[in-house]
Write a structure and sequence with these properties.
Elements lengths: L2 H9 L18 H12 L10 H14 L7 E4 L9 E6 L9 E6 L18 E3 L2 E3 L7 H17 L7 E6 L10 H8 L8 E4 L4 E3 L5 E10 L1 E10 L3 E2 L8 H14 L8 H13 L2 H11 L5 H10 L1 H7 L2 E9 L5 E2 L2 E10 L5 H12 L5 E4 L14 H14 L4 E7 L5 H6 L4 E3 L4 E2 L12 E3 H19 L4
Parallel strand pairs: 3-6, 3-7, 7-17, 8-18, 9-16
Antiparallel strand pairs: 1-2, 2-6, 4-5, 5-19, 8-9, 9-17, 10-14, 10-15, 11-13, 12-14
Helix pairs in contact: 1-12, 2-4, 4-14, 7-8, 8-9, 9-10, 12-14
Length: about 475
């Protein structure tokens, strides 16, 4: 779809629809949502022992019970991956010619061991105003909110102009093994076709007192790329050291990569992000933020900002970091091989080959071979983040969090949005779920989300999806 058609579709929504009165009063559906959320979180969907198919079937059952026709619900399971099922649902609109919107969330979660956690990671625990569990935030919070929204729309008899598609997929956390979005694009492309998609990738920021100060909307993300660095040697007896050693040579190369700084390259989204930080960041950072917004940007200022917030450094440049090292084969032998993994998060539009060549040049050792496998989403381009996209967000956000800033952002990690963007579907990260400075602890121990943040995000997504779904072309 051409961008002007997307803009027209979204622009028409920005002024037409007011928040329903029901959204401003008590929500009698909260108990049902909590039960749905609990059920989904407590289904283990790790790659090792879990099952996304079980979770997909459970959510399909809830949508069926709400009255959504069975013909509009599919659990699609790869033959070779029986536990990697994906749920695709369609909530029908009134105009079959209107392009649908897509709600995307992933069912799978990162591994979690009970002995490492304070609480059972696969039992949802509410404690001190927080929900704790693996997937409590990433990404079952959005998945549950999307399912709940479709149930509520059906119950209320809401009839949008355009179809609303929902895709709950598997393999986002382990895309090197299997990825549901990539698989659906290849084998069932019609299921994900849409004018645009809403996805994870952005949340909201709370101040020290728990007040919402910034709601993020994400457009574009860095490309994920692993490079293998390897050097080999005939080896020999450790009693006869040589002048060269694979471990020393690889270590020297890694040291040089660690010292290298990719150039600061701001795009429209990241420039807007840093401009917004002039109002939101600590006063001590403001002068340095201004300095990196200049042309040319001030590298010394960037170094100081890195100390304050590592995420700021990641937002302004491509980054590469050593994450794994393996070397040698016996304690009494000279190493025959030394290997390292360097993980890069590459700015949109920067070719993989350019990064690879930069790493090779930084090391200055032709004996260290560099190889990498290109991610299918590496050609992803950032979608346009226009006022037509953000205006509906502003209107709903102002009703829920008066005075909150709307902050454009680029994801420095990787989401399934990279596959959709590469396939031509503009995909925006938008959740309305706020976190404090510590964050949700996603991928780490004792993952959590504020109860209020989850419930506010549920309300926000319910309202903003309504606005987008009633757009006209």
């Amino acid at each position: 779809m051409k961008q002007n058609r997307l803009a027209a579709a979204l622009a028409a929504v920005s002024t037409a629809i007011a928040l329903p009165a029901a959204a401003k009063g008590p929500d009698t559906g909260e108990a049902a949502f909590r039960a749905l959320y609990k059920e989904l979180v407590e289904i283990n969907t790790t790659l090792s022992v879990g099952s996304c198919t079980e979770a997909a079937n459970a959510m399909q059952k809830r949508l069926l019970a709400a009255g959504i026709p069975a013909a509009d619900l599919q659990v699609l399971v790869p033959r070779e991956w029986p536990k990697q099922g994906n749920l695709v649902a369609t909530y029908r609109g009134t105009d079959p010619k209107a392009e649908p919107i897509l709600l995307l969330a992933h069912l799978d979660v990162v591994e979690a061991r009970r002995e490492d956690w304070t609480r059972d990671p696969f039992t949802l625990t509410e404690e001190g105003g927080w929900f704790y569990a693996r997937g409590a935030s990433d990404d079952k919070a959005m998945a549950a909110a999307f399912v709940d929204s479709l149930i509520r729309y059906r119950k209320e008899g809401f009839k949008p102009r355009r179809d609303i598609k929902l895709a709950l997929t598997c393999g986002e956390e382990t895309s090197e093994t299997f990825n549901g979005v990539s698989w659906l694009i290849e084998h069932h492309p019609e299921t994900l076709k849409a004018a645009f998609a809403l996805n994870e990738g952005a949340g909201g920021e709370l101040d020290a007192d728990g007040k919402p100060i910034a709601l993020q909307i994400q457009a574009g993300e860095k490309a994920y790329q692993d490079f293998t660095l390897e050097i080999t040697d005939p080896g020999g007896h450790s009693s006869r050291p040589k002048k060269t050693n694979p471990i020393y040579r690889l270590s020297a190369g890694l040291d040089k990569i660690g010292a290298y700084r990719f150039p600061i390259q701001l795009n429209d989204v990241t420039r807007a992000y840093f401009r917004s930080q002039l109002e939101l960041a600590p006063a001590a950072a403001v002068d340095d933020l201004k300095a990196i917004l200049r042309d040319p940007p001030d590298e010394a200022a960037a170094e100081r900002l890195w100390d304050i917030n590592p995420g700021w450094n990641s937002m302004m440049r491509t980054t590469c970091v050593a994450t794994m090292v393996e070397a040698g084969h016996a304690p009494n032998a000279l190493p025959q091989r030394a290997r390292a993994n360097v993980n890069c998060r590459i700015l949109p539009g920067v070719p993989m080959e350019t990064v690879k060549n930069t790493l090779s040049h930084a090391m200055g050792d032709d004996g260290i071979a560099i190889t990498g496998v290109e991610d299918p989403g590496s050609k992803s381009k950032a979608p346009t983040l226009s006022p037509q996209v953000t205006d509906p967000v502003r209107k709903v956000a102002e009703a829920i969090w008066p005075g909150v800033a709307i902050v454009p952002t680029m994801s420095t990690g990787a989401t399934d949005g990279r596959f959709l963007n590469a396939a031509g579907t503009p995909t925006y990260g938008l959740s309305g779920m706020f976190h404090d400075a510590e964050g949700s602890r996603a991928h780490g121990l004792n993952e959590r989300i504020r109860v209020k943040s989850l419930l506010d995000g549920r309300r926000f997504l319910y309202e903003v999806v309504k606005r987008y779904a009633d757009g006209v072309e």
